[in-house]
Write a structure and sequence with these properties.
This protein is 34% helix and 23% strand. It is an alpha/beta fold. A hairpin with a 2-residue loop joins strand 17 (416-425) and strand 18 (428-433). The protein starts with a strand and ends in a 7-residue tail after the last strand.
């Protein structure tokens, strides 16, 4: 076995970051060393994202810089860009090895072969309908007070603006028994909170008669005191799923439910399979079951054909839904998607102007949400100290909460306490420990 120093760089979403940690764990299992600087590396692994063409440009710029920084290192380019655009990736001179999103477990062997032969290798194979979930080792989660577990991959939606089904394949899920096993191992490491992640998380288990509530229950049964979900699509949150989540005291009532547009005409053009009325009904159901929940969302501005009236409907709908936070994206043309060839592409200046208006509304909604927390008592998992003045953590709804230090220097890190909220400053809540410093 060849011992090498490996530098890893990640682009993209939280799932990508989890997978990069998994690749690092896989390399450590082979006895290799993860280094912190590319100039010290014998091999470099770049995990790519391809959600937007501008993201491709940033990633490719980083690839060229890595080659200049470490001219003798073996460079592995893996991830969504490679899988979605294998021919483009094959034309890149700065990557020695290409590994698609199906071949990441092969990266140690591919590296060994290349370091011996110096022969470039392209390991990219297309997805089929029966592909299984890819199991990478669990990353170290170093420095975190919450654990992250990927339990789902792929998407069957084929939204007109999105390349991800081509980069990730169809929906497939981690076995429930493996979720329980991994959760037990992570709980034994001392984590109190786990975040379940996926590409289309809401469809977890649908191919084998399960749903996301089964995964939440498995983690709670493994000893986790808090179980949090990543981004969700609306159609997976059925009445049964919501009722089961509401019955689980470990479930964190924070829902990030993608909207994309508050205009039915735009939703149809996006191939989103719900109407604004259906989305509003879902949020009403959620808030009836979780009265103190936080609901956040994604909204895109400037989708092809979006008129001023369409956008005005989105603004009004977002205000009506009272989101606690909105992640705002300007539409970015993505070659290979249906929307890229649509007529009536919106000018960049218009996309930006609409994003700015939506951002102004978002700031007001977020401020209103934080103000609504004053006087409430919430449970907080503390994560760090801000110098010696404050302990900082997150409530179950994922708002940031600060409490003053008692001056003794005692740490509350990785402990859960009840906190009564007394004030808002900026985007943070401030409060006092409810009673003595006693863990829940």
């Amino acid at each position: 076995m060849i011992l090498i120093n490996v530098y890893l760089q990640n682009f993209g979403c939280k799932v990508n970051a989890i997978e990069t940690d998994g690749i690092a764990a896989l390399l450590r299992q082979n006895g290799w060393v993860i280094c912190s600087a590319p100039e010290d590396a014998d091999a470099i692994i770049l995990n790519s994202c391809t959600v937007t063409a501008s993201g491709d440009h940033r990633m490719l710029t980083a690839l060229r810089k890595l080659r200049r920084t470490a001219p003798h290192a073996a460079i592995v380019l893996t991830g969504c860009y490679v899988q979605a655009f294998p021919e483009e990736a094959a034309a890149l001179e700065d990557a020695d090895i290409l590994a698609g999103t199906k071949e990441r477990t092969k990266i140690p062997a591919l590296l060994e072969n290349f370091l011996q032969s110096r022969t470039p290798c392209h390991a990219v194979s297309p997805y089929g309908k029966t592909d299984a979930f890819e199991y990478l080792p669990q990353g170290a989660d170093e420095g975190h007070t919450r654990a992250f577990l990927k339990i789902q991959d792929g998407c069957n939606r084929f939204c007109s603006y999105c390349i991800i089904p081509y980069a990730r394949g169809r929906c497939r899920s981690r076995e429930l028994a493996d979720i329980a096993e991994q959760a037990q191992l992570l709980s034994a490491r001392g984590y109190h909170e786990i975040v379940l992640c996926g590409i289309n998380l809401a469809c977890y288990g649908q191919e084998n008669g399960l749903n996301i509530a089964d995964a939440v229950d498995a983690c709670a049964n493994a000893g986790f005191r808090r179980v949090r979900l990543g981004s969700l699509e609306p159609d997976g949150l059925t009445d049964e799923v919501l009722a089961r989540l509401a019955a689980n005291p470990a479930f964190c009532p924070q829902f990030h439910i993608s909207l994309q547009s508050g205009c039915d005409r735009t939703l149809r053009a996006m191939h989103r399979h719900y109407t604004c009325a259906e989305y509003a009904a879902l949020l009403a159901k959620i808030r009836s079951l979780f009265p103190s929940c936080a609901v956040t969302t994604d909204i895109m501005t400037g989708f092809p054909g979006e008129t001023e009236e369409d956008f005005s409907q989105t603004l009004a709908f977002a205000k009506e839904m009272e989101f606690s936070k909105i992640h705002i994206f300007r539409y970015s043309r993505r070659p290979g998607t249906l929307a890229d060839g649509m007529p009536d592409q919106v000018a960049e200046s218009v996309k930006k102007e609409r994003a700015d208006r939506l951002s102004a509304l978002e700031r007001q909604l977020h401020a209103d949400f934080l103000q609504s927390r004053i006087g409430k008592t919430v449970s907080v998992l503390f994560e760090r100290e801000k110098d010696t003045a404050f302990h900082i953590g997150h409530a179950a709804d994922y708002t940031t909460v600060c409490v003053p230090s008692d001056g003794t220097g005692a740490s509350l890190r990785n402990r859960i306490f009840q906190v009564t909220i007394t004030a808002v400053q900026g985007d943070r809540l401030y409060g006092t420990l409810n009673g003595t410093q006693k863990d829940l």
